[in-house]
Amino acid sequence: MMRHMRALHWFRSDLRIRDNTALHAACRQATDGVVGVFTICPDQWREHDWGAPKVDFILRNLAELKDALAGRNIALKIIQTLTFDKVPDALLKVAQDAGCRSLWFNREYEWNEMQRDDAVASLFHEKGFGVHEHTDKVVFAPGEVLTKQDKWYSVYSPFKKNWLSQHKDGNAPETLGICKKQPEIDVSSDDVPESLDGFDIAQEAVRPDLWTAGESHAQNRLKAFIDARVDDYKDQRDYPGVNGTSTLSPYLALGLVSPRQCVEAARESNNGRVDTGSTGVVGWIEELIWRDFYQHVLV
């Protein structure tokens, strides 16, 4: 390890400071502080059919993340490039300006995102930076749950059986606590924009009152579901007029809560079991396994 190593953590779909695999590792290994960065890519987001409600949710959560990071002495830089292909150079400039010598991020598995990440990693390696990629948005990384012939599953049910077996055998990663507080450094946070051109938050059906921003709210929403509704989940989840689901999907999508935290909360409410006991708990854990399976299929 370098004697003085400042780390750059690249936030994407992991907008939290607890149980964030790459951020946790960066904060433990850095010797000269950590800087966070988020890349806004409006044209790329439009190509991916992102709408104003999602963009509004992202921006509000970035503002909450900025405040949470400040409590750990971590600055949050915000950069804008129209498309993913401009991200590598923009990230490198942030790293150089902030005095960082290593880049840390959690893997994403969509095609455009993987191409972007490969380009970023290649440029940073070329310039002599350390690059550290981690598993975070799934419980088991794609390729960790395979058939006995070491092949990829194409059917959910046997994938689920193997996933549950590995989890019960203690192979699943444990949840991590809050990231380590860093020494103060001479890097300041950027302002988070309240809106973006091309995403007309004022004209579209944006309901911030329904989707409160912030990691703490995501944790409260998880607790409320586990305490009051999870046991009835299997029976009530398919009825739109009933508040029977977790309502955590947007929070999972942006990484305000991790799938590991969700499984752990469900398991603890079910006397440590993941495949027996409460049918509601088991049914919800199976839906979380579906999330892993879809990433597995995508890769």
Short summary:
This protein has 299 residues and is of the alpha/beta class.
H and E string: EHEHHEHEHEHHHHHH
Quick check: average pLDDT?
Answer: 94
Q: Count of helical segments?
A: 11
Instruction: Tell me the Rg in angstroms.
Output: 20 Å
Largest β-sheet summary: 5 strands, parallel
Q: How would the global form be characterised?
A: globular
Number of E strands? 5
**Protein structure class:** alpha/beta
Q: Strand arrangement, largest sheet? A: 3-2-1-4-5
Distance between the termini: 32 Å
Helical amount among residues, as a percent range? 40-55%
What amount of the residues lies in strands?
5-15%
Low-confidence stretches: none
Architecture blueprint of SSEs:
Elements: E1 7-11, H1 21-29, E2 34-40, H2 42-47, H3 52-70, E3 75-80, H4 87-98, E4 102-106, H5 111-126, E5 130-134, H6 156-168, H7 215-228, H8 233-236, H9 249-253, H10 259-269, H11 279-298
Parallel strand pairs: 1-2, 1-4, 2-3, 4-5
Sum up the structure in keywords:
five-stranded parallel β-sheet, globular, alpha/beta, 9% strand, 11 helices, 299 residues, single chain, 5 strands
Give a written overview of the molecule.
This protein is an alpha/beta fold and 299 residues long. It has helices at 21-29, 42-47, 52-70, 87-98, 111-126, 156-168, 215-228, 233-236, 249-253, 259-269, 279-298, and strands at residues 7-11, 34-40, 75-80, 102-106, 130-134. Strands 3-2-1-4-5 form a five-stranded parallel β-sheet, sandwiched between helices. α4 packs across α5 (111-126) and α10 runs antiparallel to α11 (279-298). It is globular, with a radius of gyration of 20 Å. The model has no long low-confidence stretch (mean pLDDT 94).
